[in-house]
Amino acid sequence: MAAPPRSARRADYPAGRSALKTLVVAAFSVGLFSLATLMVTMAPAMDSRSRRRLAHGDAATPGARDRHESAARGARADEAARPAAEAEAADLAAAPRCRAQLFAETELGGDVVRWGADHLTDSAAECCAACAREARCNVFVHCSSAVACGELHRQCWLKQLDDAWPEVDALRGKSSRWTSGVAGERPPPAAPRSAADGPPPEVALVTEAGEVRIRLFADAAPLAAAFIRAVAHAAPSCDGCRFYRAEPVPAGWGSRALPDTWSGGRWGPPYALMQGSFMPSRPDEPSLPLPAKPPAEPSQRARPLIRRGMLAWAGGGGGPDGFIALAEHPEWGHGHTVWGEVVAEDMIVVDTLMARPIRTEDWGSIMASVFVTPLPFRLRALRPAARNGEAGTPPAGGLAGD
């Protein structure tokens, strides 16, 4: 039997194909609708957006189940987070004591209660609320400016500071990055100090340019004060005691025109200090042993903000290497044990010593300014060790002899 002509086959097939296509589409639609209806019925925990996706056929796409389960978990997480968000809002409303005491461009110090490197908040007000939740926190600092803070932006440091208000007065407006807050009200101003209020000096540095008298902070830094007294009595000539580092005060010290840094900014280099060793190599009196090296003081009172004329241990730890500050150092915060102060009128001797020739020396992490020839000194006791109640304490503002 002969096959129908090719033209006849082309004419007959479209009708059959159309009927078959209609049947397949109808069956697929009914099946898909049934499947979607079944899955909607079995997913009561999913939110309304997920159900709408199911009704429109999303369930048939690869990975849909995972997306729906994730949506369900997200809905449950939102419900769980709502009480925490409400609690945070309540904390913000309950923390006016912090918000009322905000100080822009100010970085306050103190013992860290919570590190800001892993504690970020969107505003100083939220940082304040976090401080209000911590029993020990009475000071916070927040890096609020995205431009000035860089990678520090949004860091919220919670701190504890025994007496914050003198520090506010000393540091207010000196930082380009930080906003600080203090809990509580400012106390009434104390009566001004006079030179007669300070204890008499206990020891003197005897140098080629003259004597530099020192008041010891025996109440706040008893370990350091005891060490200096022992050296003065055990080795009057202090063989081996010397000043070797001489960092003058640069012209732009503390200038707001420079970055708020201490690496090519407003806080050096050079770093405004004269540093040396207060440990003799041997005692002049063989019957008196050399004192042990003093450790860092545990008390916060031993770490005030450093001002011109104060003496502190170098490196943020204990002795015997220490320095005389030639300017105020707000950039160091409370990082150094401060154990004494130079009588104000004797700072002219220190300035004279700083005029000696200096050179630059590579210390690895920094390029240090050092004396071309180290400067020896003697440590001389001026009076017997102070009795209880007579010892000097760090002043709240300025030096006792100012």
Automatic annotation (TrEMBL):
SUPFAM superfamilies: Cyclophilin-like. The keyword Transmembrane applies. Residues 286-297 have a biased composition (Pro residues). One of its GO terms (molecular function) is peptidyl-prolyl cis-trans isomerase activity. Residues 49-83, 176-201, 281-300 are annotated as: Disordered. It comes from the Eukaryota. The chain crosses the membrane at residues 20-43. Pfam families: PAN_4, Pro_isomerase. Residues 106-159 form the Apple domain. Keywords: Membrane, Transmembrane, Transmembrane helix. Residues 205-357 form the PPIase cyclophilin-type domain. Residues 64-81 have a biased composition (Basic and acidic residues). This is Peptidylprolyl isomerase. It comes from Diacronema lutheri (Unicellular marine alga).
